[in-house]
Amino acid sequence: MLKAIVMDFDGLIIDTEVIWFDIFAEWFRRNLQHELEMKDFLICVGSSSEDLFCSLEELHGWTIDRDQFDQETLDTFIERSRLLEPKDGVVAFIQTAKRLGLKLALATSAKRLKPVTHLTRLKLLDYFDILVTAEDVERIKPYPDLFLKAAEDLGVNKNEVLIVEDSKNGLISGRNAGMRVVVVPNEVTKHSEFENYYMKVNSLKDIDLEELMKTF
């Protein structure tokens, strides 16, 4: 029986992944004269930029200055994302979940400030019963810790949870937690290869929660 939904944030609720890819590509082009490919960027989507940096350092023999990257990109991200609206179908999906009596959690590999800032701005924060972020667990996606903690904090079993994700790392994390995952790819993650998902849709508008609850 479905009792709770756990949603990702970046790329699912607001479309930050496209912005981040552009910022990453600009930084690598400017500082390392390197054209970042989408397949490489996908390594870190839903997880940590450290995965991408380590991979490229090993491949090219670089030393990437993490502090420099953060200093030169964070303000740009804040400026470009500050007016982002919820993705198509997000608000209706969240409102329907609450109307149906489902518990709702957010589980993100990001630190807490970013989702709280945007959810507050969009007047969506109060719909969520709990938020689980990188600050609450030892390991982020693709490890299962975020989703396991979300289920524990909500007081539900893993077979009573539906995860909604946009990234391959998020899908793997959910599967590692033993939970069912709906994948909603965005313009960046549509280039990933997804396997072993519960459902894959183009938009949250395509999920009929009332029908899904009958067969979950």
Overall description:
With 216 residues, this protein is of the alpha/beta class. The chain has 2 domains: 4-15 and 86-215, Rossmann fold (3-Layer(aba) Sandwich), CATH 3.40.50; 16-81. Helices cover 44% and strands 11% of the residues. The chain contains 9 helices and 6 strands. The protein has a 6-stranded parallel beta sheet, sandwiched between helices. α6 (113-121) links the parallel β2 (103-107) and β3. The longest helix is centred in the N-terminal third of the chain and has 17 residues, at 16-32. The mean pLDDT is 97.
Distance between the termini: 6 Å
Question: Major beta sheet, specifics?
Answer: 6 strands, parallel
Query: What is the CATH topology of the largest domain?
Result: Rossmann fold
Q: How many DSSP E strands?
A: 6
CATH classification class of the largest domain: Alpha Beta
| Coarse shape | globular
Number of domains: 2
State the strand order across the main sheet.
3-2-1-4-5-6
Instruction: Give unreliable regions as ranges.
Output: none
What structural class do the secondary elements suggest? alpha/beta
CATH H-tier superfamily of the largest domain: HAD superfamily/HAD-like
Strand percent estimate: 5-15%
Taking all Cα atoms into account, the compactness measure Rg is: 17 Å
Counted by DSSP, the helix tally is 9
DSSP helix fraction:
40-55%
H/E topology pattern: EHHHHHEHEHEHEEH
CATH architecture of the largest domain: 3-Layer(aba) Sandwich
